[in-house]
């Protein structure tokens, strides 16, 4: 007779994902299964227990009382197993962490500074995932992410890096060639460089929003240039192709060293911010904790690049 008369662990794993995501579809995507396979596992688990675990509504599900009780127990068990496995692996393996950030943050802010982190913790195998798409830390393929929003994400410990400040930028040569660019409204007569399809990390600020914030009405008089990568937008601005919007955490340094100038207007400061985040239960990982400490020191000191 088995010591632990449990359902199949795969069913419990699937149940945890469905309960946490409150969606069969989202759980199937997370587990790399079909939705029908997830449904079959849940039905088999309910048959084994002799109780319904979910109230199935038209376009939503919710846990029954029995489902909530099982979810609490399964979560505690899996959390404990995960911590134990992580500790055991840490003894024999070189620590490895994956950090996700936007392409621009990775290229302009993170990479020039990473040497200092490597000097500090040379034994950590650090992987950088550059993406402008939304990162879901719960999927488990990312340990740390630079997140954009209000700082509140379920199960995530987030620490403020900097606010969002947006202002126009262009090359010094472009400004010399366009002396008429003196006021925000003058931007309507310039070649504007647009970020298009840049994902969710950039929020809702574009030229239309910035101009409206400056009290400017009307449409641009010239055709702009639309690019789907922010580094390409800034390269276009540096090359004198037009005027771009600059996000201060990237372009402040470019203004300081003279590569770009801010021709007109006041920065648009939004209510959203940028944070470094990791799952709360992963913060006990020393490598993750060290990366958090390092990046907050970089932000706090504003250290000059070597």
From TrEMBL:
Database matches in CDD domains: PBP2_GcdR_TrpI_HvrB_AmpR_like
Keywords: DNA-binding, Transcription, Transcription regulation
PROSITE patterns given in the database record: HTH_LYSR
InterPro entries listed in its UniProt record: LysR-type_TF_proteobact-type, LysR_HTH_N, LysR_subst-bd, WH-like_DNA-bd_sf, WH_DNA-bd_sf
Domain HTH lysR-type, first and last residues per copy: 7-64
Calcium among keywords: no
Residue intervals passing through the bilayer: none
Record-level Gene Ontology MF annotations: DNA-binding transcription factor activity; sequence-specific DNA binding
Example GO BP: DNA-templated transcription
Recorded family membership: Belongs to the LysR transcriptional regulatory family.
Alphabetical list of PANTHER family matching this protein: GLYCINE CLEAVAGE SYSTEM TRANSCRIPTIONAL ACTIVATOR (PTHR30537:SF26), HTH-TYPE TRANSCRIPTIONAL REGULATOR (PTHR30537)
Name of the protein: LysR family transcriptional regulator
Protein source organism: Antarcticimicrobium sediminis
